[in-house]
């Protein structure tokens, strides 16, 4: 579901079929529906939550994954130039999904930065994000952004005792690292 929703969002953004304001309003409406669904079942939405949401999120913050995915996409879209924003969204879509799947099903080596994640998951997730990011940026930029974002995602960043969702961390880290790498490469080639 993560890959499907992310890919649809990226397509809508790239084709200019959605505006940042529309995406922001979707996030607000999703938040309101989330609050209501803590106490009440909402047709269709509750089925999606029952089918795809994590049990702990269902009780405390229904739809957390989807809402944070939309927030991460919106932030990347507004903060970075289009190619880097699109590449960052690909790192989120592919890197995060593949990292989780590989780590859960094939992970044997615990990541030294985070014992709840596997090294195999982070590495293969970084590779998947790298491949997706290369559709929009040069390979060196894609590699730094994707593998760097997967490294940062493994650290798990907290704010006020709460874990910041990786759907927000990954595109921001990937975009920032790709922007810095692009600037450094541009400056270095200008010197030569």
Class from helix and strand fractions? mainly alpha
Shape: globular
Profile the largest sheet: 2 strands, antiparallel
- The number of strands is 4
Number of domains: 1
- Total number of helical segments? 9
Poorly predicted segments: none
Instruction: Provide the residue-averaged pLDDT.
Output: 91
Strand fraction equals 5-15%
Please give a structural write-up.
The chain has 192 residues and is mostly helical. The protein has one domain. 76% of the residues lie in helices and 6% in strands. It contains nine helices and four strands, in the order ααααααββααββα. It has helices at 2-14, 20-39, 45-52, 55-60, 64-79, 82-106, 119-133, 139-155, 166-191, and strands at residues 110-111, 114-118, 158-159, 162-163. The protein has a two-stranded antiparallel sheet. The chain has a two-stranded antiparallel sheet with strand order 3-4. A hairpin with a 2-residue loop joins β3 and β4. The model has no long low-confidence stretch (mean pLDDT 91).
What's the arrangement of secondary structure elements?
Blueprint: H1 2-14, H2 20-39, H3 45-52, H4 55-60, H5 64-79, H6 82-106, E1 110-111, E2 114-118, H7 119-133, H8 139-155, E3 158-159, E4 162-163, H9 166-191
Antiparallel strand pairs: 1-2, 3-4
Helix pairs in contact: 1-5, 1-6, 2-5, 5-6, 5-9, 6-7, 6-8, 6-9, 7-8, 8-9
